Amino acid sequence: MRGTHMTNETSTADKAETTDETPGGTKRPGRTARHWRAGLLRGGIELRHLLRNPKEMSGHLSNVVVALLIGAYISDDVPGTHTPMAHLVLAGFAAYLLFQIGLINLPQILVTEREEGALLRLRATPGGIPAYLIAKCLLVVVMATGTLALLLASAALLVDGPLPRGPGDWLTLLWVTTLGLLAVVPLGAAIGAVLPNPREALALIMLPTMALLFTSGAVFPITSLPVPVQQVASVFPLKWMAQGLRSALLPDSARAAEAAGSWELPMVALVLTAWTVLGFLLAVPLLRRAARRESGSRLTARHRRAARSGAMPA
User: Fold this and answer.
1) What are phi and psi of 84, to 5 degrees?
2) Which of 18, 24, 41, 203 could form a disulfide with 13 if both were Cys (CB 3.0 to 4.6 A apart)?
3) What global pTM score does this model have?
4) CB 233 within 8 Å of CB 222
5) Long-range contacts of 196-204, Cβ-Cβ distance < 8 Å, separation of 24 or more
């Protein structure tokens, strides 16, 4: 199992948090610095495991392939503009990939590792939850930015996809991507802390995220949707992530397809910041609560139920 496989390698990260002095008696940095150091160390270990796992890597690559196939198939223009519809779809799909990694992949990882006993081990590690969350954030950010870079580069080379046209657009791409990930990664961690088990996790989170994909203007102009649907979509971060990425990747003439007739970048920043704050307020307390509720008997009972259902070997 992934959590068992990593136990020995992550022990170094755990030890970094359990002592305040080096063997020579020198004081270590403060608690926050230790959490960051342990989290970054743990995250680096997990990144190496990801890069060595062809099955996990193929899952991310398949998303890029699907986006390229869709971009190559669509040939119309965005209504009312001369912008290719394929460019709008690729920009929206780029936002969805970031959203998916934070809201689908991360909760699945957390639930799976909880079932393998990761949270139970964290109970005995001072500062274990913050370091664990930092490690997961690092893992997801690298996964997301790598997938986004691969999508944009391959789309530009293979299907004449969109790219930022100047320094201002590159800057917009950078801050929208950063703020978008900050909005969804802690939220994904909070969701992962409350989901029941890996077998139900995908079913519980896939349907809402797919619904947001089709109601947030990520795959076709949002103005083609009923106004009530637009209003509901505007509450969630995906709509604003897609809109921000379109502003960086599409020409200004494409603003005609936006509900407000403009990119509304201040509103993009405001909504994503609000979700960032909400996610961080929820993630750490919920992960601590999940860790407190863990026990050897609970873990053994879950393993027995999974074995009886055939989800894992007896």
Assistant:
1) -60, 135
2) 41
3) 0.79
4) yes
5) 196/111, 197/111, 197/115, 197/302, 197/306, 198/108, 198/111, 198/112, 198/115, 198/311, 199/306, 199/309, 199/311, 201/107, 201/108, 201/111, 202/104, 202/108
Assign residue 80 a region (left: φ > 0; alpha: ψ between -120 and 50; beta: otherwise).
left
Q: What are phi and psi of 290, to 5 degrees?
A: -65, -40
d(CA 162, CA 250): 7
Domain boundaries, the chain: 30-309
Q: pLDDT digits over 28-65, tens only?
A: 457 778 778 877 887 888 888 878 877 777 777 888 89
pLDDT single digits (tens) 170-204: 999 999 999 999 899 888 888 888 887 766 667 77
pLDDT in tens, 225-243: 888 988 999 999 999 999 9
Residue 12: the pLDDT is 45
Q: Cα(179)–Cα(237) distance, rounded to whole angstroms?
A: 10
Amino acid residing at 74: I
CA atoms within 13 A on the CB side of 237: 31
- pLDDT at residue 6 above 80? no
Which residues on neighbouring strands pair with residue 77, listed in sequence order? 84
Q: How far is CA 235 from CA 131, 142, 229, 275, in A?
A: 30, 27, 10, 10
Tens of pLDDT, residues 283-305:
878 877 776 766 555 555 555 55
Copy the structure tokens of residue 195: 């989901």
Q: Which two tokens stand for residue 47?
A: 């990144």
Sign (positive or negative) of CA dihedral 188, 194, 199, 203: negative
